[in-house]
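Open question from group meeting: does this chain pack into something compact, or does most of it stay loose? Before anyone orders reagents, we agreed to write out a predicted structure and look at it together. Recording both the input and the output here so the notebook holds the full record.
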Amino acid sequence: MAKPDHAPLYVQIRSALVARLASGEWKPGAMLPSDRALAIEMGVSLGTMRKTVDSLAADGVLRRHQGKGTFVTEQTPELANYHFFRLVDQHGERVLPQAGSEVVVIIPAGPETQRRLCLGVGENVILIDRFRTIAGRPAILETVEVPAALMPGLERETPLPNALYPHYQARHGISVISTDDRLSAVAADAIAAMTLDVPEGAPLLLVERVAYDLTGRAVEWRRSRFLSGGLAYAVTLG
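Structure tokens returned:
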């Protein structure tokens, strides 16, 4: 016999809505039923449902539009850059990269990739190696790995767009909701030096990122090496 769920009702309702969103019941851009209709359907109070929907809106999963309704957030390049690309110039203005060359292949997941993406031995990933430009010159060297089982055929969808997260959502139904970013300073190796046109050993900013979908599943491991001169990685809290 299944054990009773002792989680607070609000948490249970949120989990149920997330599961329905993850299943594709409501596609990106689709309008949800009203809070009242959802409350009746799921047998909870209107206040509980409003709290649940508000929490998903605060997390960027849903968007409320006054007088129109509540919609599933649809990733766009502009939205992805605003939320997930945090480089600024010396004046504090956001800088937007442009796509450069790329290589996209399927490879077996290595031990570290297995750990980061919670994959088993023998599972494959799609590896994206690319550089991106800022103001016309190479400025970012990226290595991106995603589980091949989650995004079948991604390796054939080249050239990939500059902003990958809207593509993940539109083509594979994978919505990136949150990321865990780790920053460190590294020295340019021979490949980075040649690609970014800097001396070997030049200082670079390394941002290691694991991206998660709305169920908390790790869907991407990305390593981005940035030219540090005149650029900063800006995060605003609160």
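Observations to bring back to the group:
The CA atoms of residues 45 and 170 lie 34 Å apart.
The first strand starts at residue 62 and ends at 65.
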